[in-house]
Design brief:
Oligomer: heterodimer
Radius of gyration of chain B: 13 Å
Number of strands of chain A: 10
Distance between the termini of chain A: 24 Å
Radius of gyration of chain A: 14 Å
Largest sheet of chain B: 7 strands, mixed
Distance between the termini of chain B: 36 Å
Structural class of chain B: mainly beta
Helix content of chain B: under 10%
Strand content of chain A: over 45%
Chain lengths: 111, 114
Amino acid sequence: GESVGLHLPTLSVQEGDNSIINCAYSNSASDYFIWYKQESGKGPQFIIDIRSNMDKRQGQRVTVLLNKTVKHLSLQIAATQPGDSAVYFCAEGTGRRALTFGSGTRLQVQP
Amino acid sequence: NAGVTQTPKFQVLKTGQSMTLQCAQDMNHEYMSWYRQDPGMGLRLIHYSVGAGITDQGEVPNGYNVSRSTTEDFPLRLLSAAPSQTSVYFCASSPRTGTLYGYTFGSGTRLTVV
């Protein structure tokens, strides 16, 4: 299949370590933010979301942090596994408009 | 429940040809949208729809048309294909209400224009 993200920034971590993927967003009026995972040849897959009135939300092995002061979003993955290797995108949304995506980060998990 | 279905999965067009990329969802979602993804870039919004009969332009609408005659279907038409439209195209849908407008994506159409 076609490779996605040939020139994306890459984060390389050891299996079992924690990963932190960062994203700067542009619209201070965005209502919500979503992290997606995209494996090669597949469509984006929902990971976790957060509303603009929150600063932290936790899921299974993942945590999203939102800092509205500096318009920064991060995704923390605990105990990173080889299956976590993928390209990760943040996306922001306002009201009923469709999502606006960031440029993505490739996560490589070394065994 | 098939989710979001895109057809075809692969397509090669000659410059100047027209074609329609199909997108169908069976989740009764009101919101549907089309994105394109180029290597090294995120997804860019082409067109979107908030319900049957309603469409609007996104970030990169030129060269594409859409219509939404039913809730289920949201086809994307390339009027006269150009090499710059070589990309991977994703369709996505979202419920009017629900968990923070989470989108469900199709598996993509890989289009090459020669």
